Amino acid sequence: MREFSLGFSPCPNDTYIFEALIHQKIVDDIRFKVHIEDVETLNQMALKAELDITKISTHAWFHVLDNYSLLSSGGALGKGCGPILIGKTQQIPTKGTIALPGRLTTASLLFQMAVPGDFRFEQMPFDKIIPAISDGTVDAGVIIHESRFTYQTFDLNCLLDLGQWWEDTTNALIPLGGIIISNKVDKKDQVRIQSLIRESIIFAEKHPESAMTFIKENAQEMEEQVIADHIALYVNDYSKDLGDKGRKSIELLYERSTQLDLLPNHSKNRKDKLFID
Q1: Which of 59, 63, 145, 230 is catalytic?
Q2: What is the rounded CA–CA span in Å between residue 79 and residue 58?
Q3: Residues 221-268 pLDDT 10s
Q4: What is the rounded distance in angstroms from the CA atom of residue 76 to the CA atom of residue 171?
Q5: Active-site residue 145, yes or no?
Q6: Can you give the pTM of this predicted structure?
Q7: CB neighbour class for 170 (10 Å; exposed up to 12, middle 13-18, buried from 19)
């Protein structure tokens, strides 16, 4: 039996994807030591190469190309699922303090691409952003995950749908995040784990109630409809396999990031490192 460390977020899409795998509802001799953390914490852990396998923001993935390969299964990408810039006003700001859900999140990268201005940034967990806007701590903020479904109840407005901006600008999928695996892991195990994640998603699709207790134990928002909407938005056919369209969207985000000088020098001109062989 082999054991690998595995990190993913407490968000419903990740717990839905991995529940069958980590609770051994899929028969295999591979086991996982699980770390459930906010995605930006996972991003930072990846920078230190602390985990064998981990969920990561696509933006952060571009910073660790030398140490990790991207799996074709388990990712979050698609259409209509991007981050949203929200605030109390109706106007997109050009200055002030903006709350972001982590420096290395894809949400932060898309904001830098889409919104010019003289900003100060406050990095905070995604579930703290709406309260920070409401109490005036920040002027606006970029929300992700369950917050997409609840911000209207706080009398806040959508100032810019950053996912829609990306789709309109590129006609590509929004590559929010993926699952990466250490290059130290044997290639055969890389391919097997990629297949196991896909099998775990298929199991969840066939047995949707099987994972619900685990999902609710970890979710920030307990309302069942919000959980269902979240999973429906972020888990799709591209989660089972990126395919050519998914890969091209990731390559495009990488190219745009490089052109705008938004990546560190050691990550530039490494397009050949984006996917496992």
Answers
A1: 145
A2: 15
A3: 668 888 898 899 899 999 999 999 999 999 999 999 999 999 887 777
A4: 17
A5: yes
A6: 0.92
A7: middle
